[in-house]
Design goal:
With about 60 residues, this protein is mainly α. It contains three helices and no strands. It has a domain of about 40 residues.
Length: about 60
């Protein structure tokens, strides 16, 4: 039985994510991924980023 096109894309995406995760050295990102795995519906990414990142996003939003 052959895979549907969406299944092939999912497999490719999964492999790309696995490769990316194995290269991570940033503890904050790893902790965020761990929390996402443990509580997929309860994570708010905004609370997991630094104040500098929040300011950069807010400045970007103001210029749009």
């Amino acid at each position: 039985m052959s895979k549907r096109p969406n299944d092939v894309h999912l497999d490719k995406d999964r492999l790309e994510i696995i490769k990316w995760v194995t290269t991570l050295k940033d503890r904050v990102v790893l902790d965020m991924l761990k929390r996402l795995k443990e509580n997929p519906k309860k994570i708010d990414w905004w609370n997991g980023i630094s104040e500098d990142e929040k300011k950069a996003i807010e400045l970007r939003n103001q210029s749009i």
